[in-house]
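User: Predict the full complex structure for these chains.
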Amino acid sequence: MALFPITGRYVGDFVPHLVAVDTEDTMDQVAQKVAAHSVGRRLPEPAGGPVYDVYLGDRRLDPTTTLGSLGLAPLQWLAVREAVEHALVEFDWDRVLVATQLVVKPVADLLFLDESGRQLVASGATLDGMIAENLARDARRSRRWTGALLRFLADAGEANVTLLQRYLRRLGTARSRDGRGRVPAARRGRRAPRECDRRDRPCRLAGPGRPGRARHGPALSR
Amino acid sequence: VVLAAHAVLEAERRVSKAERKWLNSKYSNWEADYGEIWDQIIANVNSGDLDKTVAATLPALCNLTHLPLGTAFSRHEMTPHTSVYEGRVYHFDSHISKWCFDLDPARYAANPTVVDRFLSGEIQPTDLGGALRWMGLTPDVMGEDVYDYRWAADYAQPSAPAAETGSPS
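Assistant: Here is the predicted structure of the two-chain assembly.
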């Protein structure tokens, strides 16, 4: 049991902090200590309550893991963000649109339709593969509809773009970008669609997703 | 010095509705980068939670510029820039600062930041109050809001802009 300094970043806040945690702290406790410097001070409490995830790089740490067991160096950068599970308990229409259509569904479709379809075909389950492929085609249609809806909302007013982008950033990636404007690959099943959170252009859905595989490893790509 | 400047600015930081309008007209990303943060600060001011408008710990600092991490770019583009030198982790506010450090790490590692001094025990007592005193920031130096938070009263009306909840119009 010993005090341990980390560089704690609450995703959404504009500055990380020096945070004193304990080697015996679980990730849940670390998350609370990091969030305490941002939530309620410069950012509102998440709609679903104060439930957070801790990220070491791109890796989400198990909430019960203790800090000491990770063997980190002092001042390690740990990112804390609102748990994505909150996306599933949203009730406002605009938040639901962002949470499901822009964050959760594209990743789920990519995992369970595109990728598993390819795996099924590769393993000889042709009929199942064809069904998955058909559903994936339907998912692409859904994304085009969502894109059209977002364009409609964007055309209706700049305030809509600001609001939707705010929700998207809240629910988007754990690390935001790698400095080159690219978002990390969908390895953790938590990323946002590619084009939607580009803050310098109107919100537009991209086509069928191929998340930054060139620079972020082959994870889900063929 | 930088921290001192930040702390002094704390006393003067404000964004009235008129200033916000001006900022948005000059900086197209201002609302996306800072609007939500100011909404929370304004809400705290208007509900009397002034203790939540000041920091409770030190900001993490860049080991090259000694500026707070995250101040070089938009909060939405923040990502760690880190080097390990002689077994120690060093953080930077940008890949540019990291590049400079990596060219001559011994030179820059020899200049501890306020956070480093804090952790090494050079600053006593090791709490925020101790750090502020070390910088000469006593309450009379820091002061209170110079406008007595009148700028925040603008927002106390029900039609506050950029409210957190609400459907697109």
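Chain A touches chain B through 48 residues (CB under 8 Å).
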